[in-house]
Design a protein that fits this description.
Helix 1 crosses helix 2, helix 4 packs across helix 5 and helix 7 packs across helix 9. The protein is globular and about 55 Å long. Strands 1, 2, 3, 4, 5, 6, 7, 8 and 18 form a nine-stranded antiparallel sheet that branches. Strands 9, 10, 11, 12, 13, 14, 15, 16 and 17 form a nine-stranded mixed sheet that branches. It has three domains: about 35 residues, no CATH class; about 180 residues, D-amino Acid Aminotransferase, Chain A, domain 1, CATH 3.30.470.10; about 160 residues, Alpha-Beta Barrel (D-amino Acid Aminotransferase, Chain A, domain 2), CATH 3.20.10. By secondary structure, the protein is of the alpha+beta class. It binds 2-OXO-4-methylpentanoic acid. The site of 2-OXO-4-methylpentanoic acid has 5 residues, from loops. 2-OXO-4-methylpentanoic acid (COI) binds next to loops.
């Protein structure tokens, strides 16, 4: 009797699987022994054939009131994706369970010994109309290729990068902060040498892993200004070093000064150029932007800083607002003299974080009014970029990409 019920139930399941729109997905799932596979071996490499996102699942991982208190920290989610480079080629994008958030790499892996590793940061947003979209993912795809080139790693093809990002977002729909909570699903692609080398050489094998983590503010308070300290006893990057690549080592170099700054009561550190120690480069987590007395958008020009997608977007919005945009060397003396009415850190994680005071040597410089409010120009740019990300305004630059 029991066997009869089971076989009836099985037939119903098979019927449902074959009758639903995503039946090919279910067949692939069955064929792969329950481990969902995407990419070549799973019949196609086209992201358009991935199962669509289940919008009913968006934000179901936590109760609504918990989304705004997320902060920016690692959280286990449903799944992550992984892609291996072996024998001179990238393989398929594979889905892995978030309950086992580990990867196995060789003890001689070049990422561990020689820092052959880079990463990206981008976000997916629940839109006002119920959809989910990625903010400018092809910019990140292009940047990770540049980072790979700088540290001799095989670049992940842009379409595979996009496919992996879409896949991880779709599979973690429950972890996407609902529209209106102010949060986003932060996507962290990481690419690193996983094969062994003990002499200094690039590896033969690499892993590309993409995690997705629900996040809210990086610095507590969102648009509430923070105080910064100029780090003048350490350098972030040498003029012809790897500062413009998003490689892991740049961030390791910042850990010690960053921890010291925090201990002094400054949540964010600002680096100067390594050669003359007199030009602003970038914050430890993000780019530097300022609004001068004439209302121009000013951001440093240097070969040693990371090309931020957020900064690029804000510059495009500033130009669209009719503001002058200046990408030029920015002497720290201009900051100290009070030439800027508004200053902010900008990047994917920090979004736009205003800075109201900057400690330079023994002098605490006040920026603008120095109060607890964001300045009007930066607020306007922040509101514009956030409304595009949230799907509240026309995306006239076509920045948002469907998941
Ligand atoms: C990002 O903004 O996405 C970054 O990767 C910066 C990191 C320090 C959180």
């Amino acid at each position: 009797m029991q066997a009869t019920i089971s076989s009836v139930a099985l037939s119903v399941l098979v019927f449902l699987a074959l009758a639903t729109p995503s039946s090919s997905y279910l067949r692939r799932l069955a064929a792969s022994g329950g481990r969902r596979l995407y990419g070549a071996a799973a019949t196609t490499t086209s992201p358009t054939t991935l199962p669509p996102i289940d919008v009913k699942k968006i934000g179901t991982a936590f109760p609504l009131n918990e989304w705004s208190s997320l902060g920016f920290e690692f959280r286990q989610t449903a799944s992550f994706v992984q892609c291996e480079y072996k024998n001179g080629a990238w393989g398929e994008v594979q889905l892995k369970s978030g309950s086992d958030p580990y990867v196995k790499i060789h003890i001689g892996a070049t990422s561990l010994h020689y820092g052959q590793a880079c990463f990206e940061g981008l976000k997916a947003f629940a839109q006002k109309d119920g959809k989910v979209k990625l903010f400018r993912p092809m910019e990140n795809a292009a940047r990770i290729a540049r980072s790979c080139e700088r540290v001799c790693m095989p670049p992940i093809p842009a379409q595979k990068f996009l496919e992996a990002c879409k896949c991880v977002v779709r599979e973690n729909a429950a972890f996407i902060p609902p529209y209106g909570t102010g949060g986003a699903l932060y996507i962290r692609p990481v690419l690193f040498g996983s094969g062994p080398r003990i002499g200094l050489q690039p590896a033969d094998e690499y892993l590309f892993v993409v995690l997705a983590i629900p996040v809210a503010d990086y610095y507590k308070g969102g648009l509430k200004p923070v105080q910064a300290v100029v780090i003048d006893d350490f350098d972030r990057a040498a003029p012809r070093g790897v500062g413009s690549a998003k490689v892991a080592g740049n961030y390791a170099a910042d850990l010690l000064p960053n921890m010291a700054a925090k201990k002094q009561g400054y949540p964010i550190g600002l680096y100067l150029d390594a050669k003359s120690n007199s030009f602003v480069e970038e914050f430890s987590t993000s780019n530097f932007l300022a609004i001068d007395k004439k209302g121009a958008y000013v951001t440093p020009k240097s070969d040693a800083i990371l090309a931020s997608v957020t900064n690029k977007s804000l510059m495009e919005l500033a130009a669209d607002e009719g503001m002058t945009v200046e990408v030029r060397p920015v002497p720290i003396s201009e900051v100290v003299r009070g030439d800027f009415d508004e200053i902010a850190a900008c990047g994917t994680a920090v979004v736009v974080t205003p800075v109201n005071k900057i400690l330079y040597k023994d002098q605490l410089v006040t920026i603008g009014k120095g109060d607890a409010n964001v300045g009007p120009k930066i607020k306007k740019l922040y509101d514009r970029v956030r409304s595009i990300q949230n799907g509240e305004t026309v995306d006239k630059f076509s920045w948002m990409i469907d998941v």
